[in-house]
Amino acid sequence: MAIEKPEYRVLRSIGAIEIREYKEYWLAECDVTAVKDLRSASNQAFNRLFGYISGENSRGQKISMTAPVQQMPDSGGWKVSFVVPSSFSPEHIPVPNGQSIRLRKVEAGKFAALRYRGVWNNRIFDQMRGELLAGVAAAGLTPVGEVSSAVYNPPLTPPILRRNEVLVRIH
Fold first, then answer.
1. With contact defined as beta carbons under 8 Å apart, do 79 and 29 qualify?
2. Which 8-state DSSP code applies to residue 113?
3. Mean pLDDT for the stretch of residues 75-88
4. H or E segment to which residue 83 belongs
5. From the CB of residue 171, how many other CB atoms can be counted at a distance below 10 Å?
6. Which residues pair with 151 in a beta bridge?
7. d(CA 83, CA 106)
């Protein structure tokens, strides 16, 4: 059974960078503060987010796992999120129990994405973010906001088979 991902269409490619148009989607997101390491932040956030999709929400409802897990640098740490399945209309998304997780809408729009395989860590994120932003600038596009990391596979997936991306909203 395929894991659901946010819906998009590729508008064009600029070298290895795809210019995509995404439909609106929702995230269940939490902050991991005082942690600079991408992998450590993801590990800390995972248990909270997994609890939410396992039923720690206003309906006690289990929510299907989706991809990717997204990480975005934030002052003092990272924002880590799961995509809410599209089967939930905004008014029917189960509300997280507690305040450590919040729901956030990602507006429809254009994003630049750079896909890569292998491990993901701060060094690789910085490298890929640099390549993405350089490609966006060379194409005469303007990034809007922070670059995020997107991880599509479970941790035990062999690195050569992993799908990872860096994305940034553009205009």
1. yes
2. E
3. 93
4. strand 77-83
5. 8
6. 69, 164
7. 10
